[in-house]
Design brief:
- This protein is of the alpha/beta class and 405 residues long.
- 16% of the residues lie in helices and 32% in strands.
- It is built from seven helices and 39 strands.
- The strands form nine sheets. Strands 14-17-20-23-26-29-34-37-39 form a nine-stranded parallel sheet, with no helix packed on it. A seven-stranded mixed sheet has the order 5-4-1-6-11-8-12. A seven-stranded parallel sheet has the order 16-19-22-25-28-33-36, covered by helices on one side.
- α1 packs across α4.
- The longest helix is centred in the middle third of the chain and has 12 residues, at 225-236.
- The radius of gyration is 22 Å and the shape is globular.
- It starts with a strand and ends with a strand.
- The model has no long low-confidence stretch (mean pLDDT 94).
- The protein binds uridine-diphosphate-N-acetylglucosamine.
- Uridine-diphosphate-N-acetylglucosamine binds next to β1, α3, β11 and α6.
- This is Bifunctional protein GlmU.
- It holds the Pfam family NTP_transferase.
- Residues 270-380 form the Mannose-1-phosphate guanyltransferase C-terminal domain.
- In the N-terminal section; belongs to the N-acetylglucosamine-1-phosphate uridyltransferase family. In the C-terminal section; belongs to the transferase hexapeptide repeat family.
- Residues 2-233 form the Nucleotidyl transferase domain.
Amino acid sequence: MKAIILAAGEGLRCRPLTLTRSKVMLPIANRPILEHVIASLEKNGITDIILIVGYEKERIMDYFEDGLNFGVKIRYVEQKAQLGTAHAIEQAKKFIGPEDSEFLVLNGDNLVEPKTIADLIKNYGGVASLLTVRMEETAGYGVVLKEKNKVTRILEKRPGDLSRIVNTGIYVFTPQIFETIEKTPISENGEYAITDTLQIMIDEGKTVTSVPTESKWLDAVHSWDLLKANAIVLNSSRNLKVEGEVEEGVVIRGKVAIGKNTRIRSGTYIVGPVVIGDNCDIGPNVVILPSTTIGDNVSIRSFTEIQNSIIMNDCRIYSHGQISNSIIGSNNTIGSGFFVEEKEGLLITMNKTLHRAPRLGTIFGDDNRIGNSVLVKAGVTIAVDCQVESGNTIYRDLSRHSVVL
Ligand SMILES: CC(=O)N[C@H]1[C@@H](OP(=O)(O)OP(=O)(O)OC[C@H]2O[C@@H](n3ccc(=O)[nH]c3=O)[C@H](O)[C@@H]2O)O[C@H](CO)[C@@H](O)[C@@H]1O
């Protein structure tokens, strides 16, 4: 069976991290979300992949190339304007031939384990099937109403408790979907939505089925949700290897992976689950606590403590810093004495809507330069290519190229 993966959108709600990469390339346990999706397909023997790309496509194509290093064959299709999920699927029509009686479609920005995909492959039926999960908090998702396993209605991101059965964005379609996509009108949000296409099929009397799963399906709606997803994946990781050099006097407890050419200097204390990438230089006397992921080429100097955070590639973090419940994008330089305040249940405004974040420190995009003794208030984000001089306290979000003297 072929698989079409949708990966052309930005993932606006994950800004500032998506200012420089799409949501599918955000790392969880040091691998892009999309790599987790592709690995789960490969484990189900699905190796013929059509990847729909658009926003920041070079970053995706440079990483995955033809897919052979990941055990699959990837063909790319560009969706020049991101006009919605139905429009994205339509771009792959030329790759679906008469031999493809059905095919898989997946959002590239949700984490799935192999069994999640297997649950759908085993149980699909009708002209279209969608995989569903039961969730208490359904805001931001499409939900379905159904009779037995037959879907009667799909409601896209409507307020109210209409149903707790959430559409995961993982489908098995028959080629009939393309004819119905052609009939799909543009929605109130200005998008051609695949959920509208499915509703048309239902209204035409066709059988659309829902396949429930209790296997892992994780979505990061907002950037801060990545911390939870990272912790879940780190906790369930097996076979974590120590490949780098660990000096005498380092204490390691729990599950910890240390990449090639990484050096952990004396006096460093690490409590897993923690994943540290390749070519890092950590310590002496650094503390890394659960559930933390550190990318490749990162240096962290003495007496800095990091907890429940994601530090992406190529960062330099100097001494006596404290970072918790935070996400630091790539290529950030952070001076000594850096302190991130953190708070529980912050209300954060995004697109004029209030969102409640869990315990949160800060979120940094890429390429920022932070001087010494800088304090960042809880929930404040720093976009891309900002410069903060020593001794400042950052109270408000900084937009791209900001300078704080
Ligand atoms: C209309 C629709 O499909 N809604 C579903 C979608 O919402 P959701 O709002 O999550 O859909 P997104 O806009 O995030 O898009 C999902 C995926 O499609 C890609 N993309 C999106 C638009 C586009 O023009 N091109 C493109 O490739 C994105 O990069 C992403 O990987 O997934 C949710 C699960 O996470 C479901 O509960 C929703 O029912």
